[in-house]
Amino acid sequence: MALSLTQSAAERVKSYLERRGRGLGLRVGIRKTGCSGYAYVIDYADDFDDDDVVFEDRGVKIVVDNDSLELIDGTQVDFVKQGLNEAFKFRNPNVKGECGCGESFSI
User: Fold this and answer.
1) Within 13 A of 6's CA, how many CA atoms are on the CB side?
2) Domain coverage including residue 72
3) Nearest to residue 77, comparing CAs of 26, 12, 6?
4) Residue 65's CATH number
5) DSSP-assigned states of every residue in 47-90
6) Distance (Å, rounded) from C-alpha 93 to C-alpha 103?
7) Which of 21, 13, 95 is nearest to 62 (CA)?
8) How far is CA 90 from each of CA 20, 64, 78, 102, rounded to the nearest angstrom?
9) Do 65 and 73 meet the contact criterion of CB atoms below 8 Å apart?
10) pTM
11) Residue 101 pLDDT exceeds 70
12) How many domains does the chain have?
């Protein structure tokens, strides 16, 4: 089981953690919501919980709660810029469908 980062995502996380002056890595998870069932939750990890699984890729720690891991195992996290917009994007091999707006997915 693992999650990975593109070079662009790793650079974004490293630079943001440096600017913030604190943080252990990137926290990735899911929550039930939206029209398709699940949505990604992303934040910066300032600590580790007992049920967290920690991966490291490209020099960045990726923290995932154990409940989310089964649904996002194998996901690659990218950071993309399109015009004035920039965001983390997810390539999850477990996804069976996505809503039209791209905010939620089903497994």
Assistant:
1) 12
2) 4-106
3) 6
4) 2.60.300.12
5) S--TTEEEEEETTEEEEEEHHHHHHHTT-EEEEEEETTEEEEEE
6) 16
7) 13
8) 23, 14, 6, 10
9) no
10) 0.84
11) no
12) 1
